[in-house]
């Protein structure tokens, strides 16, 4: 995990200006730099922009693209929408959990290579069940195809 460099956060703020309207862009750049939104960085942004920390946390938790916890190198988003659910999307999650040695309370693999996140709907109903790895879509995923997908990203 990278240590937080407050001067780097200041550079992001300078790049976007100190208007409250720039908050989402600032958070996006912080997320891109650290892989998540460190609390220390959020406190610093709150102070510099004079925006209540509670409002920043509201935004950071509302948008699923933001994470308050470190993510793995590869982020796997598994669709849990109705079509994916009906086509056994829960079995895809179970297969990923087993293959990556995740416990019920753990979303990131012990080696930090993968993070598995459940998402409400990816808009890929015609290829259900679906998942994304780092933004690349995979459809009609089965328990057996999970290993092949992970292999592409260096696992197994």
Describe how the helices and strands are arranged.
Blueprint lengths: L5 H11 L6 H12 L4 H11 L3 H10 L11 E6 L2 H5 L2 H11 L14 E6 L11 E3 L2 E3 L4 H10 L4
Parallel strand pairs: 1-2
Antiparallel strand pairs: 1-3, 3-4
Helix pairs in contact: 1-2, 1-3, 2-3, 6-7
Overview of this protein structure:
- The chain is α+β, with helices and mostly antiparallel strands and 156 residues long.
- It has 2 domains: 6-62, no CATH class; 74-152, Glutaredoxin, CATH 3.40.30.10.
- The chain has 7 helices and 4 strands, in the order H-H-H-H-E-H-H-E-E-E-H.
- The protein has helices spanning 6-16, 23-34, 39-49, 53-62, 82-86, 89-99, 143-152, and strands spanning 74-79, 114-119, 131-133, 136-138.
- A 4-stranded mixed sheet has the order 2-1-3-4, covered by helices on one side.
- A hairpin with a 2-residue loop joins strand 3 and strand 4 (136-138).
- It is elongated.
- The mean pLDDT is 91.
